[in-house]
TrEMBL record:
UniProt xrefs under InterPro entries: 6-blade_b-propeller_TolB-like (IPR011042), Glc/Sorbosone_DH (IPR012938), Quinoprot_gluc/sorb_DH_b-prop (IPR011041)
Region annotation (Disordered) ranges: 29-53
Domain Glucose/Sorbosone dehydrogenase: 68-362
Segments crossing the lipid bilayer: none
Domain of life: Bacteria
Keywords: Signal
Descriptive protein name: Oxidoreductase
Length: 387
């Protein structure tokens, strides 16, 4: 069910691949490069959204899964089900594609004793191999007592670390993991609370890494024999690409500003010298910043020219329209503000909807009776010539 929020203040969004609005939800086919098939979904419930300026905004929200424990990463399998990590339990869950009385069926796939969770470390990002139908391989980013690591495995099999020695501390452990359109694996790391590591080219902290599936530096990296793709990051927990192959990353944990960055090969994004936008030409400024208490965003996903980020302290989703050359168009919109608490994961599903995860079971959260949850979002409301 989709309802119109009379109190919503957001301008209409251009979300063509996400929605087609009639009296009920309907979807067009996914792009050719998207994995998976649409799962068997429960009926949506109504939720109200909140934007910044004039106009109504409709949002259909479906609770797909509930009673989870700090879900972190989400990645889709070819059958349309999703693999979901739980940070503190060290579990991989499969959500869907089958459903039951509570929503999509949730099944524990396996639990890793190697994961040592504390602070914001634990079992974090997950990525499904682009060749999963033949190699059955997935990749995870996780914490031990000494470091953060990236490993590969066949589900229910043994972890095989491919990158070790990523700095580990209580906070700022990064954790983003995703395959790019070039077929290589990217990881976002944190500076582990030490701002000097983000500027040290020999340290893996505060970086975005690009690698082969064996954990080796990918061909074409800025420095041969180095995993580093970009540097000067505080804490990267979300990575995504648009149809134009432009890469976006969230940046959180700075004292003043949360960031959305456009990531380019070899660029330096300024931490720990710059918090937000600066004037030093050797650093690349963010595409957009927000006060940290309105952001601290983790997940990021794209649909056509719309960029969405899910925020922890901000307890909302920010939506940004970008032009063909990557500049911001209009005013960013604040959606679902305070309605589901802390929002962490955000991914584009095979059917063109967005899946988001709450993170209310962790420190700083206020859990609702069904938390933590995975919710499915479909937006409507025209804009940029769309209806």
């Amino acid at each position: 069910m989709i309802v119109r929020s009379r109190r919503a203040r957001g301008v209409a969004l251009s979300l063509g691949a996400v929605l087609a609005v009639t009296t009920a939800c309907s979807f067009g086919p996914p792009d050719p490069d998207q994995q998976g098939a649409p799962p068997n979904l429960p009926k949506p419930s109504a939720a109200l959204s909140q934007g910044e300026s004039g106009g109504d905004q409709e949002v259909a929200v479906t609770v797909l899964a509930k009673d989870l424990e700090i879900p972190w990463g989400m990645a889709f399998l070819p059958d349309g089900g999703a693999l979901v990590t739980e940070r503190d339990t060290g579990r991989i869950l499969q959500v869907g594609p089958e459903s039951d009385a509570n929503g999509l069926k949730v099944t524990e796939v396996q639990r890793f004793t190697e994961v040592q969770a504390s602070g914001d470390g634990g079992l974090m990002g997950i990525a499904v191999s682009p060749s999963y139908k033949t190699d059955k391989t997935v990749f995870v980013y996780y914490s031990t007592t000494k470091d953060n690591r990236i490993a590969k495995l066949v589900l229910k099999g043994t972890l095989e670390p491919i990158v070790t020695g990523i700095p580990r501390s209580r906070d700022d452990n990064g954790g983003a993991l995703a395959f790019g359109p070039d077929g290589y694996l990217y990881a976002g790391t944190g500076d582990a609370t030490n701002g000097t590591q983000a500027q040290n080219p020999k340290n893996l902290g505060g970086k975005i890494l690009r690698m082969t599936t064996a954990g080796k530096p990918a061909p074409g990296n800025p420095v041969k024999d180095s995993l580093v793709w970009s540097s000067g990051h505080r804490n990267v927990q979300g990575l995504a690409w648009g149809g134009d192959r432009r890469m976006y990353a969230t940046e959180n944990a700075q004292p003043k500003f949360g960031e959305l960055n456009v990531i380019e090969k070899g660029k330096n994004y300024g931490w720990g010298t710059v918090d937000g936008t600066g004037t030093d030409a050797k650093f690349t400024n963010p595409l957009r910043t927000w006060p940290i208490n309105e952001s601290y965003c983790a997940g990021v996903a794209l649909v056509e020219q719309s960029v969405a980020t899910s925020c922890l302290l901000g307890k909302r989703i920010w939506m940004i329209e970008v032009t063909g050359n990557g500049t911001v168009l209009g005013t960013p919109q604040s959606l679902l503000t305070e309605e589901y608490g802390r929002l962490r994961g955000l991914v584009l599903a095979p059917d063109g909807s967005l899946w988001a995860s709450t993170s209310n079971q962790e420190d700083g959260g206020t859990p609702a009776p069904e938390d933590d949850r995975i919710i499915r979002l479909v937006f409507s409301g025209g804009g940029a010539g769309r209806t």
